[in-house]
Amino acid sequence: GLDCDALARNSLYMGWGIVLLVIQLWSSCFLSKRYSEMLQDKENDDQDRALVNFVWQRRGETWSKLEKFEDVVQRQFEELRMSLIAHAHSASRDAPKTGGSMRELAHSTPPPPQCQSPS
Fold first, then answer.
1. What is the residue-wise DSSP string for 31-74?
2. What's the CA gap between 23 and 4, in Å, rounded?
3. How many CB atoms neighbour CB 100 within 10 A?
4. Quick check: is 52 in a domain?
5. What separation in angstroms does the CA of 115 have from each of 104, 111, 112?
6. How many structural domains is the chain composed of?
């Protein structure tokens, strides 16, 4: 007949072999999942880094445009100020010498016409 001890020993070895294979399968799945997460994290880090670089580049471009706009506004302001000073000097030269001050002259000039809304 059958050798029951050999059959029991063989079944025990098969059981331990299956347990070992299940452990190897579980560990390979776990390691592949961890590796996949690591690759995904690296890809996300690269995307985040690219997004941060893009935002900083756009910020730099916007800042540059803002500085140019500020320069234009400053130049226009200086031109307007110089024009007003020149106008005030020419008005003081053209003003009658009857002792009127610039303030009196400014108050004596009529205000500019106002736009009227159509009725």
1. HHHHHHHHHHHHHHHHHHHHHHHHHHHHHHHHHHHHHHHHHHHH
2. 28
3. 13
4. yes
5. 26, 12, 10
6. 1
- CB 49 within 8 Å of CB 63: no
- Asked whether residue 103 is domain-assigned, the answer is no
**18, two tokens:** 């299956």
| Domain membership flag for residue 113 | no
Q: 0.70 exceeded by the pTM?
A: no
Place of tokens 């205000």: 111
What does the pLDDT profile of the chain (119 residues) look like in tens digits? 778 888 899 999 999 999 999 999 999 999 999 999 999 999 999 999 999 999 999 999 999 999 999 999 999 999 999 999 999 888 888 766 555 555 665 555 555 666 666 54
99 φ/ψ sector (left φ>0, alpha ψ -120 to 50, else beta): left
